[in-house]
Write a structure and sequence with these properties.
This protein has helices at about 15-35, 70-80, 105-115, 135-150, 170-175, 185-195, and strands at about 5-10, 50, 55-60, 90-95, 100, 125-130, 150-155, 165, 180-185. By secondary structure, it is of the alpha/beta class. It folds into 2 domains: about 5-115, Alpha-Beta Plaits, CATH 3.30.70; about 125-195, BRCT domain (Rossmann fold, 3-Layer(aba) Sandwich), CATH 3.40.50. The model has no long low-confidence stretch (mean pLDDT about 80).
Length: about 200
């Protein structure tokens, strides 16, 4: 089986409460990634976490059906998704078959991801899910970045909305029902608005 190995340290020690939170992580990874992934490139299996006292854990993700680009998306989004886990993760390492991806390979895959995600920004209307952008400074920075790139920020979803930015599946579904043309996650938005060189 082709796997992506994830190793982490939690803040403090693995208490019974932390262990309960760790047990929820496989489902959270699968749900959050598969919601935005094409059907043929979803995660089939995430192992239960193995806990190594006092503060380490490890798990593996089956990436057999994921292409290289999808794997890079998963690698890049996992640290962001970890911020929403019930468990506070102090450090996270991600590698394939026990080997961390090389800097050159990560750079090459990141360039490929940016090419695929080079969606038009000029004159496109963005609506942001403020719940997905919890940090006030990040909210303001995202709005400024959209405007600087030539996009337009609206507060309400309507059929004029080209991109609704959210990491929450329930918000994504509601946005589609209200007429948003496309739902993108916060990482995709960051790539769209960032340096594409």
């Amino acid at each position: 089986m082709d796997t992506l190995n994830v190793y982490g340290h939690v803040e403090g020690e693995v208490t019974p409460e932390v262990e309960v939170g760790l047990q929820k992580i496989p489902q959270q990874i699968t749900t959050s990634f598969n919601y935005f992934a094409p059907v043929q490139e979803g995660i089939d299996y995430v192992s239960p976490p193995m806990i190594y006292m006092p503060d380490e854990f490890a798990l593996f993700i089956s990436v057999e059906h994921l292409g290289r680009l999808a794997r890079e998306v998963l690698i890049d989004t996992l640290p962001l998704k970890a911020l929403a886990w019930e468990v506070h993760v102090a450090q996270l390492w991600i590698g394939g078959q026990g080997e961390v991806l090389s800097k050159d390979e990560r750079g090459s895959l990141k360039r490929a991801m940016r090419e695929v995600w080079a969606l038009p920004v000029q004159r496109k209307v963005f609506v942001l899910d403020d719940t997905s952008l919890r940090d006030l400074a990040r909210q303001l920075g995202t709005r400024d970045a959209i405007r600087e790139a030539g996009g337009v920020v609206h507060e309400q979803i309507s059929p004029a909305c080209d991109y609704y930015v959210t990491d929450r599946p329930e918000a994504a579904e509601l946005a589609r029902e209200q007429g948003a043309k496309q739902v993108i996650d916060t990482l995709t938005a960051a790539v769209m608005l960032g340096d594409r060189d």
